[in-house]
Amino acid sequence: MRAKWLWTAVVLAAVTGCGEGRAILNVDIYSFLTGTGGDTLRLTPDPLPPMPPGTSITDSITPVGVNLPGGLGSSLVDTVRVTGNIDVTNPTSSGSLSYAIFLASDPSPAVVYGGAPALTIGPASFPAATTSVPINAPNLAASARDLFKGSGLYIGVRASVSNTGAAGLKTTLKLTQLQARIVVQDKIF
Amino acid sequence: MRILVVGFGLVVLAGGAATPATAQWLVTDARRIGMGGLSLGRSGSVARYNPAYRAVSAKAEQRHGQPKVTIPIPLGIIQFLHDHPHLSSDPAFDRKSPGFNPILVVNTILNLPLYLEVKKAPTPTNDVAFTIGKNFLMVNLGQAATLVPEDQFGISGSSRPLKGFRVGVMGWLHDDVAFQLGDTLLGFLRDSQPADTNTRYSALVHGLVAGGFAPTISYAGRIAGDSTQGFYVGGAVHYYVGVGYARTDGDAGFVTGDTLFGGSNPVTPDGRTLTQYSKPGNTLGHGIGGDVGVAWVSGPVEIGLGVNDIGATITWPDTRLDSAFYRDSSYSVPIANHVETKTKLPVSYIANVAYTVGNTTLGADVLNTGRGSVVHIGGEQRVGLFAVRGGVARDQRKRIEFGFGGGLRFGGLGLDVGFWTHTNSLSNQRAITMATSLSIY
């Protein structure tokens, strides 16, 4: 509720000058994930042993809240571009990665992971060495874009790793960047 | 809505036609606009603020080429209705429409479409970027950041809705609204400084409105010379009777928390204000003040100086004082009731000089009504049937504006065209307005 005061102060100042321009929100989603453990997935989870060749594993994080200013209920979210980076750190074998990001307005894991992912990265192959996998989604679907209008956004990450090498595979998937660029047509009033 | 706008235009037109040119406001007189808003003789602000000019003969006006009556020709209304033929369904004016443009609405109010906009002030259009992290907030207003006022800004004035005579009663109304951003909020909005945790962002707010009436005894007369060369003095003593007033002085904003976007309470609204008011029906306020003015007319030269509302302090014997404080919850604490408070009318002054020789008139005036001085310098050159005019003005925001124009006169009838630049819109770029009026000499 109080966030809307700040938002109102900022938006009122902005709308005074922006006329028919757009409001652009650059949200550092990673800053909300880091420190919660939500930026990291250990596959296979400790203390489980490495996954054997030819097998795969899927795991997900507990949804993490991203506080947004909100107050954009009547606005048109034109674009939500998501960019970022995932590090596949110290894999003990080569493999393939699929990385899905879920968005919801409810913190319940059943709700967050109950729908289709907002974006999917991969499958992307990686060698038996630390590799970076870029995230670049030019625009999310309309249903996902509208979630950025509210003040409460919950993000879930589900990753699947397949072992395509000959040795057992164990690795850590770590988000190093995750940003959303939200372009809003300024229908503020 | 269309009927309303047309009706408004007709009212302005009819009002302008019925009102002598000397009493009309700036925007209805194309001749004054052409000279940058310059007041000459008894025209415009000179008679309002210099009581001595009430005794200066009409011949002085005619010497400056002043018409008896000016009738505005509101070409701007035609242009406005052409641009917005269906106002009631125009998306730009419909608050519920996605195309609603509050900037355009404000611009329209600030710049009433009375005259033709030759060059429109562009509505500032640019993207505004917000950068948000768990503990980071930065706003980049782009070009619009230049519109965030660094200094105190506001509006104020005192007016006299009823005209005073030698012995009479005038109405008075004093309003003063001021708003100033604090350093932290100014840096956040104007300089795109990131928001900080545990920091207060605020603005100072001041508002006052007071009104009443004033029995007045005034004098204006020539104490030396004749109608072509004379020294005039004028003065008035007012006994101000205050019917009601309200004043608030406050400081409002918000305080950021430990984390900007990390919790449910990232900011805490924070405000405090002291409100004072004396409602109509309470014991009337009272005070004494006066106006003085002198004017010297000597051949081609005319000089005047007038000062209004000297010492006009109004004492309100029955005032209530409330203190309001907001943080988490709002409450108001009565501080005192039936106590005496005072308000002060701003001292206004005008100084003017005019020089008329042959077909050339030059002049300048300085007017201060309590919130900055307005300066006008302009002139007119008459050549046969034609007149060419030009002028420059500095407005209360210390911006330079320009006026230029011309006129055509056939006996007792004249047609004047004036152009003036203005920036009293939400844009830093100048717009140019063309004013047209008929003059009867």
* Rg calculated over all Cα atoms of chain B: 25 Å
CATH class of chain A: Mainly Beta
> What is the approximate shape of chain A?
elongated
Largest interface: A-B, 33 and 45 residues
**Structure summary, number of beta strands of chain A:** 10
N-to-C SSE series of chain B? Answer: HHHHEHHEEEEEHEEEEEEEEEEEEEE
**Count of helices of chain B?**
7
Give the number of helices of chain A.
Answer: 4
Class by SSE composition of chain B? mainly beta
User: Element order, helices and strands of chain A?
Assistant: HEHEEEEEHEEHEE
State the assembly state of the protein chains: heterodimer
Secondary structure category of chain A? alpha+beta
> Strand-residue fraction of chain A?
over 45%
Specify the helix fraction band of chain A. 10-25%
SS elements, strand count of chain B = 20
Query: How many separate domains make up the residues of chain B?
Result: 1
Cα-to-Cα separation, first versus last residue of chain B: 37 Å
Describe the structure.
The complex is a heterodimer of chains A (about 190) and B (about 450). Chain A has about 190 residues and is α+β, with helices and mostly antiparallel strands. In chain A, strands 1, 2, 5, 8 and 10 form a five-stranded antiparallel sheet that branches. The N terminus of chain A is likely disordered. Chain B is mainly beta and about 450 residues long. Chain B is built from seven helices and 20 strands. In chain B, the strands form two sheets. Chain B has an 18-stranded antiparallel sheet that branches. In chain B, a hairpin with a 2-residue loop joins strand 10 and strand 11. The two termini of chain B are about 35 Å apart. The N terminus of chain B is likely disordered. At the A-B interface, helix 1 and strand 1 of A face strand 3, strand 4, strand 8 and strand 9 of B. Strand 1 of chain A pairs parallel with strand 3 of chain B, so a sheet runs across the interface.
